[in-house]
Amino acid sequence: MKNVLLYYSFSFGLGGGEYLPLAFIAALQKISNLTVAVDLACNFERSYRAFGTGLDIDTSRLRLVQVTPPNYDPKKHNVFLSLYRFRQLKRLAQDADVCLSTASIMDFGKPSHQFINMIAFGDPAFAAYAHKNADQIPVSMMAQAKRFFMDSILRPLLGMRSKRSIICDKRQHIYPNSRYVEKLMKDFYGPINSRLFYPPTLFKAEPANAVRDPLKVVSIGRIIPEKRIEDLIDIVERARAATGIDIRFQVAGRLDQSPSYGRKLDRLAKERNWLEFVGALYGDEKVRFLTSGSYAIHAERDESFGISVTEYLQSGLIPVVPDEGGTPEIVDSPALTYHTNEDAAQILAHLIADADFREGQRRHCAARAKLFSREAYFERQRELLNHLVGEDV
Questions:
Q1: pLDDT-based confidence at 143, cuts 50/70/90?
Q2: From residue 5, how far is each of 112, 170, 271, 309, 368 by CA, in Å?
Q3: Residue 393 has pLDDT above 50, yes or no
């Protein structure tokens, strides 16, 4: 069997990004001599308990290597910690036949397979381009000089490559997680050696057996400003005003921001008896939550993919999503995409008031759900890993 090295950080809050490395680990452990490199070994177990319990990972024989110092603090990361990690990965990669990063772009010191899981993967110029704010955020001469020094002088001096040089190296294999991200990367970097690979939705529900509230809208994910929670509230409020119907809205997720942000959302909920924040949900609680509603809304506009939207589809919900980012690619229905909050409110009102429109969109969403089902994902994964490792998965 081939020796395989897989890297993922496991150093931040729980989120959809953990699905891919855990699914890969479960499969690769059976067909290769697998080493898993992480930033924080203690966080792997936490992520596995939250997301990977149905993946048949044998943790007792898993070779887990922390590639950062024992006292590593991700909040204090700097170029010297990056150098430490790079040297550890390069050392491990010497004995590996196949190297994979499931945390976007990572340098192994040799050609490897890079699975993109976010737009902010370490090239600030690309992130500004993707977020359409390259001209809106002033960059001082000092900041530009520092960036030039880091990428063009210090990193090469230390034997490290910039993210850009890795991406543009045709020997590298880049796997964007949506057509949206692939187009952004090609428009910015030029031709790259890329192959689209949708990330997994390991979430499983039985929507046919669900007892739904016909007037309930839901949203799930981390409660952070980037998710535009206040826009979601505004959309439901507008739909309530347009229809005169008592539409209810529940938001599930863990609050990751400052206490002041939490207090602001708590105040909004207290002022609206139709709005409720129910906290972080996992496992059966998450299934019950998602299958209890009829609709879902999403507001993040520059998201690379959107795991939560695939979960809405798997749950039998009808999601309403922005017309930018990776989420409209998932839903693939212009009738369910919006540009303004008022557009979204009108779509939601139309779904509630028009049974024929609602059922047509529900059938469409059920068909899209099959593409992002657990079974479809594992077939894509089997084909890909069989190609990379040369063993039958």
A1: low
A2: 10, 20, 52, 30, 33
A3: no
